[in-house]
Amino acid sequence: MNMAAGVQQVQPPQPPAWKAALSMMMNPGEVVKRQMAAVPWPFSLSISGTAFTLFFLQTGIDMLRSGQLEVSAVALMAFLGILYGTLGIAAIAVLAWVLTKAAGNTYTLGWTVSAFALGYSATLVYAVIGLICSLVFGWKTAVAFGVTGVLWALRPTIFTIRQMTSDKAGLSVAIATLCGAILLFGWAMLGRFGF
Q1: Contact predicate 176/168, CB 8 Å
Q2: Residues β-bridged to residue 2
Q3: What is the distance between the alpha carbons of residues 94 and 75, in angstroms, rounded to a whole number?
Q4: CB atoms closer than 10 angstroms to residue 32
Q5: Measured between alpha carbons, how far is 57 from 63 in angstroms, rounded to an integer?
Q6: Taking a C-beta distance cutoff of 8 angstroms, is the pair 51, 123 a contact?
Q7: Residue 91 has what pLDDT?
Q8: Could you tell me which of 20, 11, 23 has the C-alpha nearest to residue 39?
Q9: 56: Cβ contacts below 8 Å, ≥ 6 apart
Q10: How far out from the chain centre does Cα 149 lie?
């Protein structure tokens, strides 16, 4: 409060982190521009970590049903999912942060990791629905739900990178494509080697 001028400046309240996660699915541009500063990176990484745990679990269940894995390997897949969804997403965020520095990125590394990880909110929803369909109906859901959820996260990734590059659309799409390709390639490699 500035008593000398008699003016009180009030900051608008920030919505809770869980509301930002829900908003990230429908309006990622708004969240990235106005709400990310209030979302702690551990919360965001818990979203992406859980999403990839369930996605990799679905992959493991699908491979179990086709005789490619045993039950113990399915548990290993779920564990790899949490590593992929936390350390992997953080590493990809660091890559994007470094690549956007030349374009004038002024955002902190913590903000970048949080924005990237929170972008997987829709992936979490897809993974939950896919796991339910897998367990209840016996469907193979990793591709239909898991990959679709990961692809859905490209939109928030593009918005995040556009914010970091001061709205350079071409560069943003190129970096987002690279990040998405690295992510899907890693998942495919794990599946190819039976893990």
Answers
A1: no
A2: 7
A3: 28
A4: 25
A5: 10
A6: yes
A7: 96
A8: 20
A9: 77, 78, 80, 81, 84, 187, 190
A10: 10
Q: Which two tokens stand for residue 121?
A: 């909110």
Query: Taking Cα atoms as reference points, which of 80, 19, 23, 28 lies closest to residue 54?
Result: 80
Other Cβ atoms within 10 Å of 63 Cβ, number: 20
* Backbone phi, psi, residue 94, to 5°: -60, -40
- Distance (Å, rounded) from C-alpha 152 to C-alpha 11? 32
DSSP character for 145? I
pLDDT in tens, 79-111: 999 999 999 999 999 999 999 998 899 999 999
The predicted model scores a pTM of 0.85
Give me the mean pLDDT over the 127-135 stretch: 95
What does the pLDDT look like over 171-195, one tens digit per residue?
Answer: 988 999 999 899 888 877 876 665 5
The token pair at 185 is 């390639």
Looking at this protein, which amino acid is placed at residue 5?
Answer: A
For 147-180, b/e burial (b = at least 16 CB within 10 A) is bbbbebbbbbbbbbbbbbbeebeebbeebbeebb
Query: Is residue 104 left, alpha or beta, with left meaning phi > 0 and alpha meaning psi from -120 to 50?
Result: left
Q: Is the dihedral of CA 152, 73, 88, 86 positive or negative?
A: positive
